[in-house]
Predict the structure.
Amino acid sequence: MLKKNVMIMVDSKKEQPDKEAEEMKFVTEGFYYKKDGNYFISYAESPVTGLDGTNTIMKIESDSVMLIRSGTASSLMFFKKGCKHTSGCNTENGIVELGVTARSLNVSLDDKGGQFQVEYVLEVNNRLTSLTTLNVKVF
């Protein structure tokens, strides 16, 4: 499958303890392709997301999603239902441990497009910081 230009809709809801839920929805142009049996979505972030100057690539398998950001902001998040992915960050105040646990993951993609949804918990130093639902549609 050749890399093709597509429209991508990203819809997310982030809930944090003692705060009002934050919702964000945007549509952007990007690329969609299949390589080695896995689907990939890529797009440039914009000021709407607060990540202007950052490129996002999502590698989607039938049971997992890897989200990779590079540029002005960089991060790696791995989602697999029931699995916790941890990474450490060096900061001025020492090492911070980030943990991401996917509560649910639903993938419905084919060569024409489709969508995936992941609901995940984010922890900082083993303390719950947020519950996020991320929906991504390719059309």
Observations:
- The chain is about 0% helix and 75% strand.
- The beta strands are 4-15, 22-35, 38-44, 54-60, 64-71, 75-80, 84-91, 94-110, 113-124, 127-138.
- The CA atoms of residues 1 and 41 lie 13 Å apart.
